[in-house]
Amino acid sequence: MQKERVYIFDTTLRDGEQSPGASMNTEEKIKIAAQLERLGVDIIEAGFAAASPGDFDAIRRICEVVKKSTVCSLARAVERDIVKAGESLKDAANKRIHTFIATSPIHMEHKLKMTPDQVIERAVEAVKLAKSFTDDVEFSCEDAGRSEMPFLKEILDAVIEAGATTLNIPDTVGYRLPQELGEMIKELHEHVGDRAIISVHCHNDLGLAVANSLFSVMNGARQIECTINGLGERAGNAALEEIVMAMKTRSDVFGFVETGINTKEIYPTSRLVSAITGIEPQPNKAIVGKNAFAHESGIHQDGVLKCQETYEIMKAEDIGLEKNRIVLGKHSGRHAFKERLEELGFDLSQEDLNRAFERFKVLADKKKEIFDDDIRMLIANEITNI
Ligand code: KIV
Ligand code: ZN
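YS: structure for the whole thing
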């Protein structure tokens, strides 16, 4: 069966940078962009050209480095923004302008102070202007998650007519539940047909951004907007690593689609982004958290040492880690302790092993984690006849 492509649109450098405290300088953005290209991201949203001269410059410089992925520049549906976006992409090998305007009643009335007809007119003008810089134009209905379906269909028809090739449906405030967003995407996908690609952009205010993205794919979305480590405004955006690994791990469900991501670059990319932004994923964060492939309890350690799949649904190696991590602590058992001793080069008699294990348990009651040096000390101090 021919698999359909799900395009991965990474917005770490734009929406991700909107995380409080995550701003990056141009050199840092270039490093991340180059790594995103290695990761196999299809579209890199490099910034918001009109936001500042620094953002404009960073996009321009990223275009000099990135040659395979498409470089995208964000613009409000405003003439100045679109012209800036177009200029920032002048040297890109593959370029996209992403223009947006809000479509929910609350945003149109209170923020934009525009009527729905004025919003459509502005969206059409924006797409037409963007089209004069590149054929690849994405249009986003900001706050689509709280917009009305008839209006969404009307504005999408108008922007398709004006030349938009990707239609993004952002759940800007992370309000939708997976089932609901899935139904919404299904209806829009049926309406749009093959006139344009449907994209989703999910925020994580209720912790549902990844689930919402996955339900969208099941219902016809073929572009997912996401960020490394789930960085982004407020509670963040959908995490790229979680979406990609969910689709890979559950190929029984997602076997009809594929991405171009080289999953072995996931961990190096995550580390680079956290080193640059100073924002460390929580230890229990799925896929890239420090504990995501760590086992502490004796039962689990014994299980994975006998057969990895007993407690692991993915391989650490698949995301670019060397191997899973057996953490020695008070819940650890004899099997893991013995393995670690052997790795450290100790070959103890049964009697010494029993004594060492007893000492280890006493020490483990006092310390959260037992490191290799603790074991070396324990053997040197306590097991005198080796
Ligand atoms: O969350 C959002 O609606 C956005 C748009 C600019 C796509 O980030
Ligand atoms: Zn967003």
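YS: worth flagging: Residues 15, 100, 140, 142, 168, 170, 172, 201, 203 surround 3-methyl-2-oxobutanoic acid (ligand 1) (CB under 6 Å).
IM: good catch. Also The mean pLDDT is 96.
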